Amino acid sequence: MKLTNILAAGMLCVAAASCNDFIDVPPTGVISGDYVYGEPEEMVTAAYAMLGDCWYNYPFNLWPYGDLTSDDCLKGGSGTTDTGYHPWEMWSTMTSTPGEFDELWYRLYCAISRCNRAILALESNGEAVLGAATAQRRLAEVRFLRGHFYFKLLTVFRKIPWIDEQVVADNSFEQTRNDALSYEELFDKVIADFKFAYDNLEAVPSDGGGRANRIAAASYLAKCYLTLAWGDGYERTTGPDFINQDYMKKVVEYTDEVRNSQFGYLEDFGDIFLPENKNSKESVFAVQTSSYTEDNTTFGRANWSNMLNGCWGMWSCGWDFHKPSQNLVNAFKTRNGLPMFDDFNNATEYPVQGVPMSQKWDPRLFHTVGMPSWPYKYEAEYTMTKDNSRTPNIYGYYTSLKDVPQRSKGETFNGSWQAFAMNDYVFRYTDVMLMRAEALVELGRFAEALTIVNEIRSRAANSVAKHIGYAADYCEISNYPAGYISDKETGRKCVRWERRLEMAMESSRFFDLRRWGIASQTINRFFETEQNVSYDGQSYAQYYSSAHFTADKNEFFPVPYNQLYYVPGLYTQNKGYN
User: Fold this and answer.
1) What is the per-residue DSSP string for 328-391?
2) Cα separation of 225 and 194, whole Å?
3) CA angle 300-375-461, nearest 5°?
4) Looking at the domain that runs over 56-98+162-578, which CATH code has it been given?
5) 20 to 30 A from 4, CA-CA: which of 86, 259, 470, 574?
């Protein structure tokens, strides 16, 4: 049975698996702990249910943290005060007090609480109820899930308490500090969870789609080692001078598993972001969603992380958040089919349908960025205009296309908020291959890295006729010639550029810049130029004049204020924040 069809059953265990671990008064009207630990399969389902238990102010796909903080994205909405996310795009005004920080921390630990309780249920009753083989497999799935949630916490907040099933069993929450383990020691814990999953899961789950699998665990192991391979995340101690070659070899080792698996490149780039293809061979692991017509529920199981990100005036409640930057649009420029590495941002340019221009573009622009005069997500009857932006004088006219289905397909939920049955990719195959290419460059295996980059560019070149034939005259993309990558500097430039274009608006850009140790120089340069952009005479993004990214501080986000004072003195703040 598909996991999407059983997630609703997880709500049976919500109360018993909640995060009220610190409340001494016994709750009433909830399922007893004895019952919960006697139902390990239900507890596993409850842990899976947390994958998509998010909301716009605590999006588990981390788009405000990975996109809004980078040179790819502007916040959007009705103005700078719409939601609390404005400090994310400014950096200079970021403090520990926004409620969004606290919500994300709290909700991710709620998810971890479910995983820990599922582990305890499996350890105490799993074999008796499920049989040894199934119990072991479920334990591996839950440890994968726990590693997934911890990876997000560690990625965002760095200084986090490691709360596992033993802490739950000992009731030692209030003795578990957030500085007890170093950054690398925390990663070791996360890696151990993924390694257990890798050693005990099937490459293809035998009991339903959407479950954790061996290939997804290999992808996460590669991502953990790639993150650690560059350093500790702070710019002073991150970058080429700090590379761990052994970790880079681990990245290649685990991505070998992915490259030789059932997964692969989906033939057309545009198909990746249509809901009918959400579990294609490109999808190594994804948070599953559904519409009400698929699961026979009232509203379906929508993607609530992206609920603000629909185009204004195109949807019943398109709130116009997550807006691509002009810098990102400029990055898709090509010359003789190759990227304009050095001068891409010298001039503000954008294609207008029906207006000839000499500048050519990587086809992925038209799959990634919605622009006035162009069909919205390939449908001419829903062509965008400048009226499809709420605040063009602040956030411009572009919109993100990857977050949403085609307009003709309708909304999963269309009350006062729209939401869509769009899976959230945790790993897609191309992402993993780009991680592999990154490691291959650092290991001096340049020809193999170039092969991967050219495979991805070839797919982009073949992604015109089916969906964006109307933009064919504006597109030009070529593969790099043989031998083009002959040193690490060139390899880094090519792989990083390819990663930006391929993964644009998929919540990874800031974390990539941080991993490479170039966040401050890239983001501050972006602030200097983006504040001067305009579209058809309309200036916007001028608020960036007071934005600034501070190295050795802003690489990580502050521990939420409420958490610091949950038990005074138990948690310490990240470097640079008060």
Assistant:
1) HHHHTEEETTEE-TTTTTSS-----TT---S-EE-TTHHHHEE-TTSEETTEEEEE--GGG-S-
2) 12
3) 95
4) 1.25.40.390
5) 259
* Confidence at residue 256, expressed as pLDDT on a 0 to 100 scale: 98
DSSP per-residue string spanning 228-293: HHTBSSSGGGBSGGG--HHHHHHHHHHHHHHHTSS----S-GGGGGSGGGTTSTTEEEEE--B-HH
Domain ranges of the chain: 56-98+162-578
- Residue 317 burial (10 A CB sphere; 0-12, 13-18, 19+): middle
Query: What amino acid is encoded at 125 in this protein?
Result: N
**Residue 93: count of CB within 10 angstroms of its CB:** 12
For residue 259, what are the β-bridge partners? none
DSSP annotation of 24 reads -
Quick one: pLDDT band at residue 411, thresholds 50, 70, 90?
Answer: confident
Is the pLDDT at 20 greater than 60, yes or no?
no
From the centroid of its chain, how far is CA 56?
Answer: 14
Of 227, 254, 255, 253, the closest CA to residue 242 belongs to 227
Closest by CA to 224, choosing from 197, 199, 265, 195, is 195
Which of 125, 420, 424 lies closest to 288, judged by CA? 424
User: What pLDDT is recorded for position 568?
Assistant: 92
Q: What is the pTM of this model?
A: 0.94
Burial of 577 (0-12, 13-18, 19+ CB in 10 A): middle
Taking a C-beta distance cutoff of 8 angstroms, is the pair 242, 231 a contact?
Answer: yes
Residue-wise over 226-236: b if at least 16 C-beta within 10 A, else e? bbbbbbbbbbe
pLDDT at 300: 76
Is the predicted pLDDT of residue 2 greater than 80, yes or no? no
Q: Are 362 and 477 in contact (CB under 8 A)?
A: yes
Q: What is the pLDDT of residue 324?
A: 98
Beta bridge partners of 413: 419
Average pLDDT, the chain: 93
Residue 553 to residues 73, 233, 569, 576, Cα–Cα distance (Å): 21, 10, 21, 5
pLDDT attached to residue 414: 65
d(CA 252, CA 225): 10
Nearest to 73 by CA among 447, 544, 484: 544
The CA distance from 336 to 478, in Å, is 7
Alpha carbon distance 193, 493 (integer Å): 33
CA distance 464 to 480: 19
Exposure pattern of 270-279 as b/e (b: 16+ CB <10 Å)? bbbbbbebbe
Decide: 405 and 420 in contact? Cβ < 8 Å.
yes
Which residues contact residue 369 at a Cβ distance below 8 angstroms, ignoring those fewer than 6 apart? Answer: 324, 328, 329, 332, 398, 399, 400, 401, 504, 505
